[in-house]
């Protein structure tokens, strides 16, 4: 994987950056990650296609590798699929952030009794970003049980990376319409739409245009893999330029079926210029989360 690292480093060095910031990476308890990998291996119904894991390594090797790429800040995206799981995941993520200081302290939530309390506890303990996965969790972002938690996160200014688009397979509560209703009630919520809202790219870009605190991450978007089944519409490319200050690099490392550098190459071939790339790969996340120490 040395060549992978060299290719990534050459990319950000050409842009004159000190490194890159990746807002969508997965570190989670080993027993949970193994189950996630097994799901991808089985081409489960939420993927429905062959999905080889490129970076299937032990945790320490994955950490060493992402650092060798020059990723200065990353996240430990995790998510529950049933009640009673989120608090346990948050406890693990807090411990992970304590021993891995270049990881942004990540937390999650689920519509259940007590959610507002453990979200408050996570924020007070230093959580910098939350993950919400409407597809895997199979819940409505507008569930009344979540109302207090969204309000708390909006007030605290803590971003939420949310898988709310209907790709790679639609969920019962995915799509732009329920997210539009959520934002109408919580317009200050710092929502980061994962995967550029794939496949409803245009609709989620429109929400970002309407709500100044909405952002999108690039995770898997524009790559050969995703373009093969849900291509980004050429007519929307101008919006990428217009919203260049609210698009953040995300990759899904380590759960990607291609080399890490391919995500960066896919962004570069959009032809939106080096200043756009510098913003997406570093400066926008720096503005959101603060300078890298």
From TrEMBL:
One Pfam match: Amidohydro_2
CDD domains xrefs: metallo-dependent_hydrolases
Keywords tagged on the record: Lyase
Protein name as annotated: Amidohydrolase
InterPro entries assigned: ACMSD, Amidohydro-rel, Metal_Hydrolase
Domain Amidohydrolase-related: 21-290
């Amino acid at each position: 994987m040395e060549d992978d690292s060299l290719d990534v480093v050459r990319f950000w060095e050409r842009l004159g950056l000190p490194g890159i910031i990746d807002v969508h990476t997965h570190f989670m308890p080993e027993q949970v990650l193994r189950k996630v990998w097994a799901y991808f291996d089985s081409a489960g119904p939420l993927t429905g296609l062959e999905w080889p894991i490129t970076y299937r390594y032990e945790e320490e090797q994955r950490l060493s590798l992402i650092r060798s790429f020059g990723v200065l800040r990353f996240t430990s995206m995790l998510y529950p699929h049933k009640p009673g799981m989120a608090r346990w995941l948050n406890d693990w993520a807090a411990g992970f952030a304590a021993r891995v200081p270049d990881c942004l302290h990540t937390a999650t939530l689920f519509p259940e009794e007590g959610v507002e309390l453990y979200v408050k506890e996570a924020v007070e303990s230093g959580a910098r970003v939350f993950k919400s996965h409407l597809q895997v969790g199979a819940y409505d972002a507008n569930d009344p049980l979540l109302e207090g938690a969204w309000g708390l996160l909006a007030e605290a200014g803590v971003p939420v990376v949310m898988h709310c688009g209907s790709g790679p397979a639609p969920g019962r509560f995915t799509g732009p319409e329920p997210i539009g209703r959520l934002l109408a009630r919580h317009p200050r919520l710092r929502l980061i739409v994962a995967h550029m809202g794939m496949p409803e790219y245009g609709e989620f870009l429109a929400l970002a245009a309407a709500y100044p605190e909405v952002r999108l991450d690039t995770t898997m978007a524009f790559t050969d893999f995703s373009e093969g089944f849900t291509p980004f519409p050429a007519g929307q490319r101008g919006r990428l330029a217009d919203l260049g200050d609210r698009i953040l690099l995300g990759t899904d490392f380590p759960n990607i079926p291609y080399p890490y550098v391919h995500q960066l190459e896919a962004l570069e071939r959009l032809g939106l210029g080096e200043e756009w790339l510098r913003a997406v790969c570093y400066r926008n996340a720096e503005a959101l989360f603060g300078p890298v120490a």
